[in-house]
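Reopening this one. Same input as before:
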Amino acid sequence: MQVTAADIAQAHTAISSYIQRTPTIRAPRLGEQLGMQLFLKLDNLQYTGSFKDRGSCLKLQRLAQAAEPPAGVAAASAGNHAQGVAYHARRLGMKALIVMPLTTPFSKVERTESLGAEVVLRGESVAESTVIAKEIAAQRHYTFVHPYDDPLVIAGQGTAAIEMLADQPSIDTLVIPIGGGGLCAGMAIWAKHKNPAIRVYGVQTAMCASMRARLRGEPVPTMHTHTLADGIAVKTPGEITSALLKPLLEDVLLVDEVDIETAVQVLSAQQKITAEGAGAAGFAAIQKHAAMFQGRAVGTIICGGNIDRRMLSTVLLRGLKRDGKIAKLRIAINDVPGVLARVTQMIGASGADIIDIEHQRLFTGLAPRQAELDVVMETRGRGHLDQILATLQGAGFPTESL
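Same output, byte for byte:
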């Protein structure tokens, strides 16, 4: 089943009044570091925080305009698709049923319910929830809304490329995250229509590279969906999207968990952009494979910003630890009065800020008259940390960074 550039243009006309026209910004600092011009489309600024608003808007709008509209719509999702369907169903006065896996975080359930949808928690995975959602939809005469393998959904997602290339027509390379493939297919169709020479790359997490295997005709690797980029951890790529993408993509690039985590950290620290793991996957691939893009004008879409606050805080703190700005030192001391005060004074005099300190006498392999200090501190970075280590060791305190 084909989706054409004309379909995407019509979709843009149909939905432009009901979605956010998100900006495409230039990221000069990051681009300079990577040796390219870099452009970021901020679809994390959509009403529900992701690009899913686009496809859901078009699909539900067409259903509502049908001669015999359905009694309601049903979907299965643990996150962004659920919210997109719920939001536009409420806007159009349609009933919405969302089946979510039993393991779905309560915050996502609450957000979906706040948009007016009926949420049913059933199934151990999205795949199981999908089967259940289709069963309930058939019983209630609802229409099931697929998250990616639907021509209208694909056309709706493709409208992101219309806006992006209108704002930054110099872009000659697009790097787009792939889960089921709806976003990448829609954007690639429009991009190739506007500029047949443009290069389009997909991105998947190495833990769940189903579309890459499908397009390359390779055996499907073992899939793991327990990834920071859970929004693109799709075990079964779309049939329609696979057929559309095969002639359009240069390749599907892979990123691992460290790449995605680093991308979330860098986007937050340097661009002040909050991205979920899947939303940062395109930038993660650009960072990892920067040599491929030297001197080019590269664009990617920050396709979602719905990261749990607890997870975001963990990721950002891990970034500070990686950069040496938060460190934990284990210091061996003689267990006599005054030594603890001397050590803390030395650390304070170095300019570091002690966050936490633990004095350990029992659970250690040291001699009875010795002890260990575990000191968590904030520093100015790796060089400063090395300086503190050298100072403590020079003063006779065996120290290691944990």
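So the earlier flakiness isn't reproducible anymore. For the record, The first helix runs from residue 5 to 15.
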